[in-house]
Amino acid sequence: MSTNKKRIMVSDSMSAAGWEILASRDDVEGVKFPYMIGRDEFQALLRAQNGVHGMILGMTRIADAELDAAQGLQVIARTGVGYDAIDVPALSKRRIPLMVVGTANSPSVAEQAMFMMLQLVKRGAELDALCKGGNWAQRLTYLPGDLFEKTVLIIGFGRIGTRTAKRCQAMDMRVLVHDPYVPAATISAAGCEPVTDLDAAVAQADFITLHCPKTQETTGLFDTARIARMKKTAFLVNTARGGLVDEAALHAALTSGVIAGAGLDVLDREPPDPANPLLKLPNVIISPHIAGVTKEAAARMAVQAVRNVLSVFDGAPVRDNVVNPEIYG
């Protein structure tokens, strides 16, 4: 390894599109490491590099121990937008920026939310099983529904929530938005209805889709009491983060007819315990935290993650993608 090059630790989960950009620069070199590497093994790998200037990570955990092992670190970039596994204060203390990929995967997550709403209301899984099971004659016992003229409540009006709203509007839905951090005028200008009373909005919605970060404020946002306010015919979709929905409360509601169904791309524990009762329910569809990782999004995220790192090396960081901008004073 050349000591004149900036060394970047890169998760082997990064798409080839990112590697192509790295290969075009003769002043950097990427060191690939396993996506599922253990913490002790990763720390040892960092120490063995004798200097690490950047990291491009999937879900690798980063805290003081990893930062101590990486001498000369200037930037960490994620090939995604979440950073639950990274100790941001530890980075800020060292004045190291943490960067995410902005809007690179936002369209993909918005599409997954729409897919789940459609799959649930159109009873896709049930009708597919009916046909494959030779029960065509029973089709009228599984009547699907429409999105047309239904009310959707979008919680969180950021990069993904705004895109989900546009897709819902295209389906002629009434779109309510709850986001206490976005001005009501901004929501109204997007053709949506701002709502401040979350519980009142929950009671109106035929579909609820979550697009907010996981914080102290949002953890357990949908507990027994709030789920009980939903319509019996309503569907809950979560493509944001596990922990926003109380899984025990959701299971109880789904098995007792409190709500009609749910679509989950995220769970409290990932991968889930095979005994998780939600996995057994016919009115739940689950995907393995894959909403933002389509083939196209993976390429976009890889490209942006590499550009983020290079922007720091080049002295012009992409400030909009920095999670801890306070390090710049």
Tell how many strands the DSSP assignment holds: 12
The largest sheet is: 7 strands, parallel
- The topology string of helices and strands comes to EHEHEHEHEHHEHEHEHEHEHEEH
Q: What is the gyration radius calculated from CA atoms?
A: 22 Å
Mean pLDDT reading: 96
- How much of the sequence is in beta strands? 5-15%
Supply the number of helical segments.
12
Helix content: 25-40%
> What is the distance, rounded to the nearest whole angstrom, between the alpha carbons of the first and last residues?
35 Å
| SS class | alpha/beta
Order of strands, main sheet, comes to 8-7-6-9-10-11-12
* Spatial shape: elongated
Unreliable stretches: none
